[in-house]
Amino acid sequence: MREALFVKQNSEKWKSYEQLQTNNPDELAHRFIDITNDLAYAKTFYPKSKTTAYLNGIASVLHQSLYKNKKEETGRFIRFWKYELPLLFYQYRRQILYAFIFFFISASIGAISAKYDDTFVRLILGDSYVNMTNANIAKGDPFGVYKRENEFSMFFHIAANNTWVTLVMVISGALFSIGPVFFLLRNGVMLGSFEYYFFSKGVGAESILVIWIHGTLEILAIIVAGGAGLVLGHGLLFPKTYTRLVAFRNSAKDAAKIGLGLIPSSF
Predict the structure, then answer these.
(1) How much is the pTM?
(2) Nearest Cα to 223, choosing from 188, 189, 175, 174?
(3) How many helices (H) and strands (E) does the chain have?
């Protein structure tokens, strides 16, 4: 059947599904099944047409109407951590891999730049931090800066900062994925120059033992948060058969779940 004839035969029905609202669950179920049948047909014979995208949008709205009052099953919290979050990590493994690649490349750039330019570390970390750390190294306490706050205060300071960084990196994906790439590059350059600085001072092994006890989770969280930001931008850049708004809404939901899964690593 030609697409024009398919549209002509069903357009009135589709318009009625859009315009005539109902709260009857049986009617909603009937409409949902009917529209998904038409959507399946359109995806088979007109996979890249506007008709397919249009039907996909109607099906999405009907699905939300049908399940918006559905009660969550017992154990929803456990199921999220045990099944839903790991499946999201697998589903968006490419975005997380891209985030890791961006971060690794920028960290390498930071380390190489610090090696061949003596002023680069001061440019990235700031004169005050470098001068203070130099003084601490001279006193035999290279990581004294991390002892200035009591453990309780530092715990909440780190947790608040990590949560904020995660939030910013995820939301910045709305800028067509430019935001998370920028933050990944910036943080990677900072890490690379930071580690090279300590190795150049002969305390690189100590820095790994002291800083990376907690830093491993922090860096991993930054990479995954960057991946979540790329997930958010992916819906805008590649909506596929969905409308751009529906694709963005779906990707935003998944990105938010990934970001939520990172909160425990902030503490």
Answers:
(1) 0.69
(2) 188
(3) 12, 0
